[in-house]
Amino acid sequence: MSDMKRVTENAGETARTERIAANLAELRSRISAACERHARSPDDVTIVAVTKTYPASDVRILAGLGIGDVGENRDQEAAGKAAECGDLPLRWHFVGQLQTNKARSVARYADVVHSVDRTRLVRTLGSRVRTENREIGCLVQVNLDPDSEVGELGTRGGVDPRDAMGLADEIVAEPGLSLGGVMAVAPRGEDPGASFARLRSTAAAIRERYPQATVVSAGMTGDMEAAIGQGATHIRVGTALLGARDANVG
Ligand SMILES: *Cc1c(COP(=O)(O)O)cnc(C)c1O
């Protein structure tokens, strides 16, 4: 590589680091403001940086800025990035819909799967995780859309709230898996605060039976304030940290 090219690349990387650092500072002040409104501590809200469509170099920058949790929604992309970033002290969160045939791969690198929404996935993940001699945390993904036909292909995933406790029981009973809590994506066309309030009551019911299930994964770039207002402990943020993704991906 020529000296000139190296200088240009370093300048690009510095600019990217500065951009992401500024975004992170702004995100932290949004979180603080929301926490203040709801008498919560910002220490109780973990940022899961969703890095889908962005390169491993961005994951490295985020880790350098103190981010410890990263999220991905597609196995192939996630597996590659997790391997490239194997030297970094990161927890990998799988947040996308998970096909059973990808369970083996996800079991190798994921620390937490946010999208557990059916019995068959619990069984398969458990068996793959045991083969890999690992343990992973699972969140019950709850479908908050009252109008969706649950189980219908093409929905955003999630179990009917009435079935969430049953799935939690199955996760707890599956060796290799631990129950971390619940996760949801707010449906379009409804006030996210109202949606997340339903998640909050499902989370409370599960926590009553399983006190270890403390995680409420809710809120993204557009609705994190509403989620924090309803008790989110983990917000999954991509756009606010890394910029808008192409409209046709992610
Ligand atoms: C992409 C994605 C996010 C992050 O969304 P942003 O709006 O970019 O913050 C959060 N959760 C899930 C499940 C996602 O797929």
Roughly how many Å apart are the termini?
33 Å
Beta-strand residue percentage? 15-25%
Envelope shape: globular
Structural class: alpha/beta
Regarding quaternary structure, what we see is single chain
Global Rg:
18 Å
- Which segments are poorly predicted (pLDDT under 50) over 5 or more consecutive residues? none
Mean pLDDT score, rounded?
Answer: 94
CATH superfamily: Alanine racemase
The tally of beta strands, per DSSP, is 8
Which small molecules are bound? pyridoxal-5'-phosphate
Tell me the major beta sheet: 8 strands, parallel
Name of the CATH class: Alpha Beta
Q: Which second-level CATH architecture applies?
A: Alpha-Beta Barrel
Compressed to H and E, one letter per element, the order equals HEHEHEHEHEHEHEHEH
Give the count of helical stretches. Answer: 9
What is the fold named in CATH at topology level?
A: TIM Barrel
Number of domains: 1
Strand order of the largest sheet: 7-6-5-4-3-2-1-8
Helix content: 40-55%
How would you describe what is shown here?
The chain has an eight-stranded parallel beta sheet. Helix 3 packs parallel to helix 4 and helix 4 (103-109) packs across helix 5. It has nine helices and eight strands. It has a single domain (3-242), classed as Alanine racemase (TIM Barrel, Alpha-Beta Barrel). The protein is 45% helix and 15% strand. The protein binds pyridoxal-5'-phosphate.
